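URGENT: need a sanity check before tomorrow's submission.

F., can you look over the Putative NBD/HSP70 family sugar kinase record below? I want to be sure the sequence and structure line up before it goes out.
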Amino acid sequence: MTTPVYDDLTPVLRALRDGRPRTRAQLAREIGVSRSTMSTRVDDLLALGLVTPTGDAGSTGGRPASTFAFDPGARIVAGVDLGATHARIVLTDLAAHEILAHRVELRIASGPGPVLDQVVDVLHDLLDRADRDLADLAGVGVGLPGPVDHATGRPTKPPIMPGWDGHDVAGHLHTRLGSAPVLVDNDVNLMALAEHSSALPHVGHLLFVKIATGIGAGIIADGRVHRGAQGSAGDLGHVAVPGGDPVPCTCGNTGCLEAIAGSAAVAARLRTQGVDAVTNDDIVELVRGGSPVAANAVRDAGRAVGAVLASCVSLLNPSAIVVGGSMARVGEHLVAGIREVVYARPLPLATQNLRVTTSRTGASAGSLGGAWLAIEHAFATPGLLTRPVTPLVLPTPAPAPEAVPAG
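Structure tokens as predicted:
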């Protein structure tokens, strides 16, 4: 029996990834190999459980040819969205369909060791509940609430993550999760990826704006995440608001968007007007409860965001601006303020087909984006999905020595 060349199977998987069944002959023509070679490759993929028979293609005379389709449930991936006070962790199949998800309260300021170990415990629990093995895990995508060096996946001087600077997040998780690749990115990049891949796949140019305590943007250009030279593209929170008040910002500058329109800034402004507000949730409840003062404060914040985004529209010419993050839950007041400025300032050519809307992926955007990051890596890496799955057993820690009775 010949050993399959697993790297040669990846092009077949990529072709079948769109969900459209094909015959062996159709696949051979599409990929450019002989029918006998394709027959062998399809048989190998059937043995690996990555494709499944779907029926017959019909006949024009003679025996009808069988068709085959990709089975996205053959492997799974995990997406991890780490926030300042919580994490959302999801298992999906290779088409990003959610299998199980769990939200856990934690403090990112506790440091990488306690936080990442808690993530691993949740992942093991989800795998057990889904009746899947670590060997089924094709990758893990992790989003961090701070700057990430994309080349290394390490956080770079993250302002709200003490102890995380330069930490090998991928390596930390990899030692506890077997052979699965671990990929790390900024959380807003993953939100943009999720919105593009799950909700707006035909929008090749998209700007995802996360508005919460901090403000950031994920950029989709030509269907791909644009990260910039050092991975800091989209750092809207520290762009100066045109004509804005010189409010001090945590970065050391004044007049930054985050200092004027972030949720902490909005809450502080409300307190000066006698309205009790501290958190994102407080602002959301006030607006939903009909507070005109809160609604006006949120709309003003939207106008400040719109003033910065107007320049982005002229520079990047996106087809859609998607607003997410905890502040997006206030509804139309925030988006209305953004639209008011964004549609007025750039040239009409840049805005004639521009949509400004709230996120469709909502609170799951970050974790879903982590899953998509792992999925795209799996399909881009020859042989990663097509190696045989064998049960994976990690080494068991040595038992602690028994206590010796005092005597």
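My own read: Confidence is low (pLDDT under 50) at residues 391-407. The longest helix spans residues 292-316. If you see anything odd, call me.
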